[in-house]
Amino acid sequence: MSRGTPRASGYFRTDYAQDLALTQTRLERASLLAFAVMLAAFPFLATAFYLDLACQVFLAAIGALSLMLLTGYAGQISLGHAGLLAAGAFTAGILFREFNAPFWVTLPAAAAVGALLGIVFGLPSLRLRGLYLAVSTLALHFVVVYLGGEYESKRGYSTGIMIDAPTIGGYAITNGRVWYFVLLVAAVATLLICINLLRSRTGRAWRAIRAHETVAEALGINIAAYKLLAFVISSAMAAVAGALFAYYRHFVSVEAFSLFLSIQYVAMIIVGGMGSLLGALLGAVFVTLFPYLIEAALQQLPNAQSYAGVLFAVNYAAFGAVMILFLLFEPLGLVGIWHRVQHYFLLWPFKHRPVAGAGK
Amino acid sequence: MQLAVNIVVLSAIYALIACGYVLIYRVSRVLNLAHGELMMLGAYLLLATAASFAGNPVAAIAAAVVLSLAVGILVYVFLMRKMTGEMVLAAVLTTVALGTLLRGLMVLIWSAQQQYPGQALGFDNPAIALPGGGRISTFAAILVVTTALVYTGLFVFLRFGRWGVRMRAAGQNPLLAAQRGINLHAVYALAWGLSTLTGSMAGMLIALDSGLTSSMTVIGLKAFPAALVGGLDSLVGALVGALIIGAAEVLSIQYVDPLLSDVVPFLVLIAMLIVRPWGLFGTREELDRV
Fold first, then answer.
1. What is the pLDDT of residue A10?
2. In this complex, do B96 and A323 lie within 8 Å of one another by their Cβ atoms?
């Protein structure tokens, strides 16, 4: 995150506490507070439909953040993210079905399975780079989904596994508003973990590996360990997101974790903007809401009923088109647009940054 | 005997599809993950030409083949050309996006129902009894022959053809090739055209043999391990890889579990990536370049 222009004039960091603080200026704190109030008030104003959308966005945000750590920061490409989500969801489902385990057992178990799978997904990265790594994660996705399908058919849950709502002290979480806050907390916790990881030694090591592996190694970074760590952390987060998804939907089935889901997650980090946590969040919002926007747009057309059958096809086509447009014309994603707008207002009435050295 | 026939037919399908992956990768180092969709598009093109050239199946097939060549060239000119010089990953993701787009469009235009271009063209598909007790459907036999012809043609073309030599040169060292006066864009466009052409031929023949459904893209994706096991830049490798993948799949369906059929190619792929990531016949230096 290079900030070429200062956010506020006359602001200098004078001690380490300011360096560590998550927010720097009063404006930042105020806007953050306003945003938090908005998020807290939202469930009391919104209908059940919008509440469900928000919950989906939070779930997608956890998955997108974890993929962003791996691809956007550590530079390891994964086309098998849906496989990890599936692994988490199935861990929760199987533990619930077979042992009637409560959620405070299944969630950590999902994280552990995810971490373990992360090592499996990550091992090829020690030998393979770029394309070949992407292919190996793609292959592992199919293996995980196959295992899930095998469990479903062998145990007779051919349509999917049902899961009861998680209970805390005898109270079952079924209310949409309660879910909203549970998932909001999970998403915010994930975001904080990511922010702090990236500010630490680990995050710097990942960025060094992404920038140049050989140089990173020469600087004394243990490449193999940090690559595996990136896979382990990212996979554990994704698996927890998968388990939460299973609880939220009360239902696990392999059909939900197709290759298209992996593509959607990759699309989130591309559309959002590579190498930015804000990008992961924006991408998650965009990709989650996109099908609903398309549906709403089709509703506006004359004789809307006749399009209902082809809705998913329109979604596919529009989604592919949007991805192509972003890859071709806005490789920096939504964050790139956001930064341009920011710069425009920060530099106004001027158009260009001051020449390096002149204004610093 | 029937088992051997099944293996040969499936391997021929995979080989015919896999050579498309190899052609594009060898020339431009791009992995085309939209190959399955392009192949399905070829099959649908046949359906479309069958409707407009009613009663003249040969013309319909010829038109579909020419159209698919044009589609491949257009994909390069309007899309992949913009991605040259970008990160390899960006190019691959563009093909993924293209695949998603095509899949949506194909359902929109032709609906998701199963179609039978063979009936539309007025062909029937009798089984042929082979010596030794095996049976093979006519179009499966044609597919095996086509695969053999396509591979022979490609070998000759790349070895002796003027444009074939240019393609190999561009794949080996684009900079030197360009300085020698080779039009790289034309070469890349040709590679995309040929790749789509061979893929579409596979799509058409599969559709003529067993009907046309949306599951065809899965076949296209399963052919990718064949290309990689053999080595992504080697045509011989694609042939051998297809045989390995085809045999592994048929044998595991027969003796282990039919559910395995979708995952066996990828298991073989993982095993290959662990042992010899550059494939059986691929060049080793490839790995450092990507």
1. 63
2. yes
Number of domains in chain A: 1
User: Of the candidates A153, A266, A316, which has its C-beta nearest B103's C-beta?
Assistant: A316
CB-based contact A323 B287, cutoff 8 Å: no
- B:97-136 residues touching chain A, CB 8 A cutoff: 97-105, 107-108, 112
CB atoms within 10 A of CB A128: 21
Mode of pairing for the β-strands spanning A167-168 and A251-252: unpaired
B97 to chain A: which residues are within 8 Å by CB? 267, 320-321, 323-324, 327
**B134 is in which domain, residue-wise?**
16-221
Residue B137, strand partner residues: B127
| Domain hosting residue A225, numbered range | 47-347
Q: Residue B251 domain-assigned?
A: no
Using 50, 70 and 90 to split pLDDT, how confident is the model at A358?
A: low
Q: What is the CATH number of the domain that holds A59?
A: 1.10.3470
In a domain, B256, yes or no: no
Q: What is the pLDDT of residues B183-208, one digit of tens each?
A: 999 999 999 999 999 999 999 999 98
Q: Which residue in B94, B107, B262 is closest to A324 by CB distance?
A: B94
Kindly report the backbone phi and psi dihedral angles of residue A172, in degrees, each rounded to the nearest multiple of 5, phi listed first: -85, 135
Of the candidates A127, A142, A317, the beta carbon closest to that of B277 is on A127
- Residue A37 located in a structural domain: no
pTM for the model: 0.88
The Cα-based distances of B131 to A14, A287, B1, B9 in angstroms read: 89, 56, 9, 16
Render pLDDT for A57-96 as a digit per residue (tens, 0 to 9).
999 999 999 999 999 999 888 888 999 999 999 999 999 9
Helices (H), A10-47: 16-20, 26-45
Confidence band for A243, pLDDT divided at 50, 70 and 90: very high
Residue B156 has pLDDT above 60, yes or no: yes
Contact check, Cβ <8 Å, B273/A128? yes
With a cut of 50, say whether residue A36 has pLDDT above it: yes
Rounded mean pLDDT of B44-50? 90
Is B89 a domain residue?
yes
Cα gap B36→B47, rounded to integer Å: 17
Partners of B86 on chain A (C-beta within 8 Å) are 331
B127-129 and A251-252 beta bridge pairing:
unpaired
Q: Is A258 on the interface with B (CB under 8 A)?
A: no
Does the beta-carbon distance from A132 to B277 stay under 8 Å?
yes
